[in-house]
Each structure stands twice: as C-alpha cells, then as structure tokens.
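example protein:
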Amino acid sequence: MLIFLVCTDPVCTDPVFTVPVLLCLEIFNNYIDESCKLMFLKSNYFYFVILLSFFISPELSAVVVNRIIKTIAVGDSPSAITITPNGRFAYVANDNNDGLVNGDTISVIDLETNTVIKTISDPSFTPALGFNQPYTVTINASGSKVYITNSNSTTITIIDTATNTITGYITGFDGPSGMVITPDGNRAYVNEYGSPAGVGSGNGTTVRVVDLTTNLIVGPAITVGLAPAALDITPNGSYVYVINYTTGNTGAGTISIIDTSTNTVVGPTITGLSGPYAIQITSDGRYAYVTNFGSNNFSPVGQTVSVIDLQKNSIVDTITVGTQPSGIAFSPSGRFAYVTNYNTLYLGAGFTNLTPGQGTVSIIDTCTNTVLCTQLLTGSSPAAIAISQDGQYAYVTNYSSNNVNVIDIYDKMWLNICK
C-alpha cells in the first residue's frame, strides 16, 4: 500500500491530499522512523513523503499504547509535579488524601536515575503552619526555590533546592491552590480556592499578590470568580489568566483576566468552561488550553479541552479527549499538548468507594487542535504531567496509585491513523 502526501510548511500544515497524517514534518529529520521505511525529498519549502507498506485498518479509531519505562513510588496522593529549570530534578507534591500520619510530603526525584532521593516532611507542622495537603509545586526561574501551596491551610512552604530543606513560609492565604511567578521573579500571584480556616473549600473568590523579595502578601485581594482552581501568566508577564471552577456544571466555568500592571481584573469574563481544572498558555502567548474536568461530584463528567484565543479572549475550539481531563503540558516545541485523563469515579454514597478506571494521556496536535488516536497508558487517576526539556519523557503523577510513571513519548513520527 502506498500513501502519498505533500506538505507546504515544515512545522504546521495540513496535507494536500486527504490522508489524515497528524505530524507533518516537525523538524522532519528528527522524526523519521526507519522501521516504517520512510523516504522523503525536500525541495525549498515543499516536502514530498512516501510511506511504503504502511497498512491502516479502517476500523481503528483509538490505540492505547504502553510506553511506561519506569514507575516511581512516591507519597500519598501525588497531585502535582514540576521539573527544575536545569532538567535534573522533579518535585512532587503528595496531597495525602488518605490522611496518613506525617503523610503530607514532597518527593524529590533525580531524573537521571528516576529514583526518589529525598522525601521532605515538615516537622514544624501545626494546623496553622507547614504542609497541609500540599497541592501544587512552583519553581523560580533560577531553580533555587520551590514554593508549595498548602490547599487545606493558609500557607505556602518555601524549599531551598540546594539542601532540600524548608527555609520559610508565606502566610495569610485562604486555601492557596496555585501560584505563578512574574518573569522578573519579583512577584507571585496565588489563587485562593478556600479552606476550612476561611470561607471553606470551593468558596474562595480571590487572588493574592506576593512580594517575593520579602515573602509577604501585598495589596488588596483581587476578586475573581467563584472557586479559582488554577492560573497561568502570559510569557511577557502582562496578564494572569485565572480559571474559576464555579459549580462544576457544564458551561458554568469562567476565566478572569488580571492586568499585572494594575492588579485589577480587566476585560469581559470568558465563559463556557465545564469544571476547569488546569490551564497552560502557549510559549508565544497566543493561546491558552484549559482542561474541563467536570464536577467534583463526578456528574456531569468532563471530556474536553477548551482552546482560548488570548487576542480575542474567547473560546475558539473545543477538543474531545478522555474522561475527566486534568493535567496538561506542552512538548518543548509546543507542537503537542499532553493531557492526563483522570477517569476515576466515586461509586458509593457520600463520596465513598473511589474507583479508578484506566488512566490515559491524550495527545493534541496544537497546529490543528486534533487528537492523535494513540493514547498513552498510565497508572490510576493520573492527575498532573510534566515533560522533560528534551521532549523525550513525560512524568505523570497517579493520584490513586501513589506513584509517578516515566513515559517515553519520543516517537520518531506520530501518525494519526484515526478515521
């Protein structure tokens, strides 16, 4: 069987013919798969590709692939993972959903050996200070400090990466559950989801600004929507986009936009999200991708990713992925977005009998906003994902499995052979 296609752009264009090939030459030399017997001829900006003896089943609509090369045991209920700027280490927040004694911890993973080299606990823990359901991990640009939001408390814990010890706290929040740092490293924005010590979980409506030179909250609280779940900052630092979970019902979620020059909410509120969980802004600042998890009560269940045009500040595309999309991360080139599908439901009354289905990762081609039919296998309840700097590996935290999957995502040519 011979398949011919012509591409006119080496990064991002649709085939001239109707053959549904997803990856159309992203630095094509690096993606040739000799096993597929690919031949190509480059002429100026035109590419002619011949695939020899590549048989496609017309019934094939999805392929779940196990590319896990290692599974790393971490702490209880790992909710977040972030890689240091030098690409050497990853920090994992263990949320301790099971309420284990001394279970609120941070795991430090050496990415050269894929082993946990230290588990950081907080001996000074009290109800008002220290780790208390550590939820997200933010690392400054130099890689010298790690900031852990304690979502069930009022604090952010600061870790020195040189010694992997706790060196301080930022206090005065109400259920901090996300943090971004401005490009100059001087300020941070923290969303307040609500906590038992304040308005209650899910009842928060504010974002706080932190002076990172003093580790103090500065200025008045910025009012956003109900239950701000996560946030991201544009590459130039001009705007912070805050996703508001609200009720978790279909279409009820919103985005508030903060102008960082005035620390005020500007423009119309973006509407139409469904239980938004995570947000990632592209490196060029053009788009934001938001995972729609759905309701925390697991009805309705989300299955989409919303694409926001940040010039129009409106949803321009909705992409169907798996069940309960949660974490999202881009490949280094920005060509692919990797989305974890949590796929976990409470089957008993009163939020009991938490039962995970098969966890997966969906891969979105950001040039076309289409999903590859290949899905990557994970452990149970994949919550967050980080991509190595070389684009070789994905690191996925499995909330129910209490581990991190290391997944080889470098396929020399991802092909979309879906209908």
